[in-house]
């Protein structure tokens, strides 16, 4: 596996979890151009406050992450803990504390085991290894069942660079830039150096198009770090690779939704604008009735009509509306068509839905998963 030049990392167990990895550091041997997008939840975690502060100048050199505890709803003490983590790690790595972005994910409302984290920060430098990002991908997991990794090699002017992304997330996910965390590293820079603008556009087309359970986490974070060690590449080449990685990670998050048995990909076509297709797409994929029907193989197409119709401020003419599951039209389906739909839903682990609004030319794709008994089991007893 290839990694971008100049990045070092590790993941280890420091006693927050019983035995699995729960702490990670990503470090660059040069200051990186950087951008980040954070949760819009009104009660963001303490690391979000610190991250927003530290990313203001557009540079980072390290990321520090702990899992199992989100450091959310922990008051001023939680914020000071996040600052102290950055300060302690900065001394170990011999970099500016303002060039470190902290992340935490896990249970809300419980104070950080700060001494364990600070001790791990003190010895961070000796644990760093070149690349090694698969270890970080494991350390950031909470209810995830598998690591989420995506990377691309980028050839330009005789150089072969790498863009490498990792993510975590399985529940409490409807990003509005969960818990959803994603970190993307690259040894190229886009020619414009407009990382913030490029990242925001890509996030709007990918991570913000995921919904597992309609709950927007208090900790959602996407970070992009570019060392520029291989120079610059055209913005469109940079952005296209970033979008491919973000799309792949988004689908992996949706597929790994808590208790999920199916990935759902919904494309809303021929809408008036982004606002209309987003409202309707999210309404469909946030509907428990739609998601349970897909799980059960129930071709109850009326649930799609309900989910579209309840978007009160975006009335769609019924006669213009078209809905397809796996290429099969569902409106007015007879018994034979319903049998085909049921077979499609039951026999496939990836379900493709197309909704045509016929109110304009705008199109957008969204991802989610079905609702199963496993989701209830996972969340009914999460802290017990």
UniProtKB/TrEMBL annotation:
Catalyzes two activities which are involved in the cyclic version of arginine biosynthesis: the synthesis of N-acetylglutamate from glutamate and acetyl-CoA as the acetyl donor, and of ornithine by transacetylation between N(2)-acetylornithine and glutamate. The gene is argJ. PANTHER family: ARGININE BIOSYNTHESIS BIFUNCTIONAL PROTEIN ARGJ, ARGININE BIOSYNTHESIS BIFUNCTIONAL PROTEIN ARGJ, MITOCHONDRIAL. The record marks 105-106 as: Involved in the stabilization of negative charge on the oxyanion by the formation of the oxyanion hole. The record marks 178-179 as: Cleavage. HAMAP family: ArgJ. One of its GO terms (biological process) is ornithine biosynthetic process. This is Arginine biosynthesis bifunctional protein ArgJ. Its main location: cytoplasm. One of its GO terms (cellular component) is cytoplasm. Pfam families: ArgJ. It comes from Leptospira yanagawae serovar Saopaulo str. Sao Paulo = ATCC 700523. Heterotetramer of two alpha and two beta chains. One of its GO terms (molecular function) is L-glutamate N-acetyltransferase activity, acting on acetyl-L-ornithine as donor. Pathway: Amino-acid biosynthesis; L-arginine biosynthesis; N(2)-acetyl-L-ornithine from L-glutamate: step 1/4; Amino-acid biosynthesis; L-arginine biosynthesis; L-ornithine and N-acetyl-L-glutamate from L-glutamate and N(2)-acetyl-L-ornithine (cyclic): step 1/1.
């Amino acid at each position: 596996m290839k990694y971008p030049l100049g990045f070092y990392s590790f993941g280890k167990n420091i006693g927050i979890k019983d035995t699995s990895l729960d702490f990670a550091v990503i470090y660059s041997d040069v200051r990186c151009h950087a951008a980040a997008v954070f949760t819009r939840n009104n009660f963001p975690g303490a690391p979000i406050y610190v991250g927003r502060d530290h990313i203001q100048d557009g540079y980072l050199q390290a990321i520090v992450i702990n899992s199992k505890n989100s450091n959310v709803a922990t008051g001023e003490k939680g914020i000071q803990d996040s600052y102290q983590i950055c300060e302690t790690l900065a001394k170990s790595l011999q970099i500016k504390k303002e060039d470190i972005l902290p992340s935490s994910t896990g249970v809300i409302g419980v104070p950080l085991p700060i001494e364990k984290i600070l001790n791990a920060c003190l010895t961070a430098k000796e644990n760093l290894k070149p690349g090694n990002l698969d270890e970080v991908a494991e350390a950031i997991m909470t209810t995830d069942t598998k690591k989420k990794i995506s990377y691309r090699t980028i050839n330009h002017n005789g150089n072969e660079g790498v863009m490498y992304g990792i993510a975590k997330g399985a529940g409490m996910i409807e990003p509005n830039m969960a818990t959803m965390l994603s970190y993307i590293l690259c040894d190229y820079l886009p020619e414009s150096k407009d990382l913030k603008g490029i990242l925001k556009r890509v996030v709007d087309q990918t991570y913000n198009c995921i919904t597992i359970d309609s709950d927007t986490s208090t900790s959602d974070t996407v970070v992009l770090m570019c060392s520029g060690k291989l120079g610059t590449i055209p913005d469109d080449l940079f952005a296209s690779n970033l979008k491919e990685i973000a799309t792949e990670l988004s689908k992996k998050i949706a597929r790994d939704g808590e208790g999920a048995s199916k990935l759902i990909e919904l494309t809303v076509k021929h809408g008036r604008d982004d606002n209309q297709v987003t409202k309707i797409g999210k309404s469909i994929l946030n509907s428990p009735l739609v998601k349970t029907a897909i799980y059960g193989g129930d071709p109850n197409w009326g649930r799609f009509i309900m989910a579209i119709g309840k978007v009160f401020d975006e009335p769609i003419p019924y006669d213009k509306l078209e809905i397809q599951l796996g290429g099969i039209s569902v409106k007015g389906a007879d018994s034979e068509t319903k049998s085909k739909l049921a077979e499609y839903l039951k026999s496939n682990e990836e379900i493709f839905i197309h909704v045509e609004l016929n109110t304009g030319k705008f199109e957008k794709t969204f991802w989610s998963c079905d609702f199963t008994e496993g989701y209830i089991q996972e969340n009914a007893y999460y802290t017990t």
